[in-house]
Amino acid sequence: MTTDTTPALAEDRQQAPGPRVRGRSAYPRYLAGKVAGAAVSLLAVLVTSFFLFRLIPGDPVKTMTGGRQVSAGQLAAYREEFGLDLPLWRQFTDYCGKALTGDFGTSYQFRAPVVDKITEALPNTLLLTGTAFVLYTVLGIFLGTRSAWRRGGLGDRVNTGLALTLYSIPSFWLGLLLIVVLSVGIGPVPGLFPTGGMESGGEEGFAYVLDVAHHLVLPVVTLVAVEYGQTLLVTRSALLDEMGSDYLTTARAKGLRDDLVRRRHAVPNALLPTVTLIFINLGRTVAGVILVETVFSWPGLGGLFYQALSVPDLPLVQGLFFVFAAAVILMNTLADLVYPLLDPRVAR
């Protein structure tokens, strides 16, 4: 090696860390882009939630009177009280200004702040959909992994067929079927579970916990049965794409057991699509499942949305719609921010 080439090598060594610096600087730009996109989406939802539900036919003020004979003066007073007498552009600016501070107005039918009604119903929704989310996510990933690793076997065919069948069944229909069979009872099968609601009333302490758990069984079973198939199919497909990779062949050639190869190498690298689905479903846990909560009379956000939509209770519907959409947008953004931790190439 000559003295002329030594400075060149030294210069190369000094420049070698360059790509790493660029890789680190790419993540803040990636982060800023995703956060800005989420902010724009939230503003779009805010605008959409105002105009969309004003297309619903019906007069909210007349609905609030319950069909009673009310004078024109009383109707005008109601409209003035809720700001419905203002021009549409003024209603829109007032709504946006208050919504940006967390004030979604006052519910027409409950005569209470929308935020208070949402806060009151949110824990019930999180209990139902959160329990179902944990169960169908764990079940879907476990069965999807097993099915992919034993592709074409009897277990794979049974799991895939059952997942596709249940995933195609409407949740409200399955819920009604479970109520008929397991709540009302049919033939020799007695009614084992309540037909709806969250509690029987009059219970305290541990007896109250058992009572709520008893009411929770059928709606959770409905959600798990309908939702786990999607996680199973996505996990199975992603893992099948990874199974032909060279690094798995190398791992087996080193003498590693199949179970170890699957857990330490194949599954972690196949989780990117599943992570996307998990975060989307996590956002949906805030929204609940409107039809399931309605079928089982569960006092959550989904049931509250259905009740408000039938009036229509515009402030409550708008507030709930914004919360539902915001939860999904925020969870999608969080998933985008997690991607570079799983695969650094995403942020480049």
Would you give an account of this structure?
- With 348 residues, the protein is mainly alpha-helical.
- 74% of the residues lie in helices and 0% in strands.
- The protein contains 15 helices and no strands.
- Helix 6 runs antiparallel to helix 12.
- The protein is flat and about 85 Å long.
- The N terminus is likely disordered.
Write a concise keyword list for the protein shown above.
mainly alpha, 348 residues, single chain, disordered N terminus
| Category by helix and strand content | mainly alpha
Percent range of helical residues:
over 70%
Low-confidence stretches: 1-23
Radius of gyration: 27 Å
The number of helices is 15
What is the number of E strands? 0
Q: How many strands, what sense, and barrel or not for the largest sheet?
A: none
Shape: flat
- The ordered H/E elements are HHHHHHHHHHHHHHH
Q: What is the averaged pLDDT score?
A: 79
- Which band does the percent of strand residues land in? under 5%
Distance between the termini: 37 Å
